[in-house]
């Protein structure tokens, strides 16, 4: 009896790479940008978008100042696509991200939408991360 197996991790891509910048906005206006999360593997995977812990935000801001790239999920947004199941939205400060969780089939894609509603004067910055099961 011959037995064999092949183990694989979830394979994915996130475009565009971060950081995501909404630029200067007039108070009371809204802009949105999209991130594409793509399943390049052979199995379904689940994703969940969360706010990064404050410590991680401070460290990434420091590394950005030193010329390093920030988290690949900074201020992102997603929209539902037929190849995945999705859940609700995440509101952090002036940013709203949707969907904030879901499941993506092999070779499927999920558009994640990040909206910014310019409320008060000043700079608004948040750090988010995308947790993918089996990575």
From TrEMBL:
Coiled coil: none
Gene3D superfamilies assigned: Immunoglobulins
Region of interest: Disordered: 61-85
Top-level taxon of origin: Eukaryota
GO biological process, any: cilium movement
GO cellular component: axoneme
Name the UniProt record assigns to this protein: HYDIN protein
Species this chain originates from: Loxia leucoptera (White-winged crossbill)
């Amino acid at each position: 009896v011959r037995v064999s197996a092949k183990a694989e991790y979830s394979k994915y891509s996130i475009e565009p790479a971060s950081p995501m910048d909404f630029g200067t906005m007039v108070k009371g206006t809204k802009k949105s940008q999209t991130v594409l999360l793509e399943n390049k593997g052979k199995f379904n995977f689940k994703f969940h978008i969360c706010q990064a812990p404050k410590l991680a935000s401070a460290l990434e801001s420091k590394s950005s100042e030193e010329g390093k790239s920030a988290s690949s999920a900074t201020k992102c947004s997603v929209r539902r696509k037929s190849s995945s199941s999705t859940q609700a939205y995440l509101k952090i400060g002036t940013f709203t991200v949707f969907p904030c969780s879901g499941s993506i089939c092999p070779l499927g894609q999920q558009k994640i939408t990040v909206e910014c509603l310019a409320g008060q004067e000043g700079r608004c910055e948040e750090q988010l991360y995308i947790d993918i099961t089996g990575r």
